[in-house]
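The records we work with from here on pair a chain with its fold. A complete example follows; check for yourself that the lines match position by position.
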Amino acid sequence: MNIQETIVLDILTDGTVKVLPILSSACTTCQQACEKRGTAFTVVNPKNFEIKKGSLIKVGASGKWQLFQSLYSLFLPIISAFAGYFLAPDIASLFNKKAGEGMRALLALLFMFTSSLIIYFLSKYLQKLFYKWTSPEILEIL
């Protein structure tokens, strides 16, 4: 499910839209240009809604990106922990040691921690590489 936030449109640029969040429901009817608005951010318009400066819209996270991120963020550490546990005897034999339960647990945690670091840096890289796919998107015009 997308996290939705009602926002006011600020500036249009080549395929992306710069928007300002509305901080309260009272702001929608207010005609004052107060300083209580949030920081502007960029969203994409994949459904090609006809919008203009001043339009009220709803935005949310991309459903595809949320699904992809949740799957690899959940399953990669779990698979890595199992790999560390079951590869412990092979890794211990490289050091002429026998893998006990302590060594298995340590390697499972080490593999899980390493995969979490990989996920963190991969997420940052993927967000820059696939900006239009990972950016918040316009869901509807209000």
User: Anything to note?
Assistant: The mean pLDDT is 79. The longest strand covers residues 5-13. The radius of gyration is 23 Å. Helices lie at 63-94, 101-129, 131-134.
